Automatic annotation (TrEMBL):
The lineage of its organism: Bacteria, Bacillati, Actinomycetota, Actinomycetes, Streptosporangiales. InterPro entries: Thioredoxin-like_sf, Thioredoxin_domain. Pfam families: Thioredoxin (PF00085). GO terms for molecular function: isomerase activity. Keywords: Isomerase. This is Thiol-disulfide isomerase/thioredoxin. Residues 23-104 form the Thioredoxin domain. It comes from Lipingzhangella halophila.
Amino acid sequence: MTGDYGSPVLHPDDLGAAEFGERATLVQFSSAFCQPCRATRRILADVGSMVGGVAHVEIDAESHLELMRGLDIERTPTVLVLDSRGRIVRRASGQPRKADVIAALGEAIGAR
């Protein structure tokens, strides 16, 4: 997972989400027939359940093309890790490793 994106800030309504996590949010861009997207969903759900105050938001890439272009997302799965303010702290294209997601969450939770 890589970081420092000029610190764009996202809001729940930007993603069609009811709300973000109190401490951090894992945003996953997926597509219907993407096998790595299914594996990524399981990884993010598992990590999210281990850490309180973390939400997992999954976005259908095909239904949100304008948002994907605006965030320069070119493939699925892509994961954005947001801090409590909605700032993008880390991003990964392709299926992330669980250890990398945990490390990115640690960074997001520590970012104030």
